[in-house]
Design brief:
Blueprint (H helix, E strand, L loop, with lengths): L4 H15 L5 E7 L2 E4 L2 E4 L6 E2 H8 L6 E7 L7 H4 L4 E5 L11 H10 L13 H18 L9 E3 L13 H4 L4 H4 L7
Parallel strand pairs: 1-5, 5-6
Antiparallel strand pairs: 2-3, 3-4, 6-7
Helix pairs in contact: 4-5
Length: 188
């Protein structure tokens, strides 16, 4: 019997893979420690680390048209290229050069629960609106504390594997942002 925490992750994702339907939404949210070895992000789990490649392989088995991946860990955006594809929105707490993400989780959850996050006042919060509120909250906190900003959230939703620091500029830049502006966690 394998008691590895990674074995538990494999089992849970495999169970989802057999039950999920194409019209379902799938959310993968990792929060915790990570490190970089040979330019590969390694999510630190008890007993055994999980590489970005291993997570990518596991998530390929989830056959849904809509997937949200949130990585809240040091150097999170290092995994974007491995995980990016059509139908996936990937939000990372910081760039691959940053080793801190102390405010992201708190800011992200707060934005999910705050009515003021609904920027366009349509009664729902898109994941892009949540990302914008999260980024603003983080910048405001660092400015208030008079600290150098050392965590910059990024988002990839166009499948090119290159995350954006300003996806709200998607209309101008024609890059990331469009898909996440149409992704809602609330039911219509």
């Amino acid at each position: 019997a394998n008691n590895s925490k990674f074995a538990n992750v494999i089992k849970v994702i495999s169970d989802f893979a057999s039950d999920i339907k194409p019209e379902d939404k799938f959310i993968f949210y990792y929060t915790g420690q990570a490190n970089v070895v040979n330019k590969q992000l390694r999510l630190n789990l008890p007993d055994e680390d999980v590489t970005q490649k291993e997570i990518g392989e596991l998530l390929k088995n989830i056959k849904t048209a809509s997937m949200l991946i949130v990585l809240d860990c040091p150097a999170a955006s290092l995994a974007v290229k491995e995980l990016s594809c059509k139908g996936r929105i990937i939000i990372c707490s910081c760039t691959d050069q940053q080793s801190f993400s102390i405010k992201f989780g708190e800011s992200f959850i707060s934005a999910l629960n705050n009515k003021e996050t609904d920027i366009d006042n349509d009664g729902r919060k898109s994941i892009l609106e949540v990302f914008i509120a999260t980024s603003k909250n983080i910048e405001d906190w660092y400015r208030k504390e008079k600290l150098l900003l050392n965590e910059t959230p990024v988002l990839d939703d166009n499948g090119d594997g290159v995350p954006s620091k300003e996806p709200w500029r998607y209309v101008i830049d024609l890059k990331d942002g469009l898909e996440s502006s149409m992704y809602f966690l609330e039911k219509e």
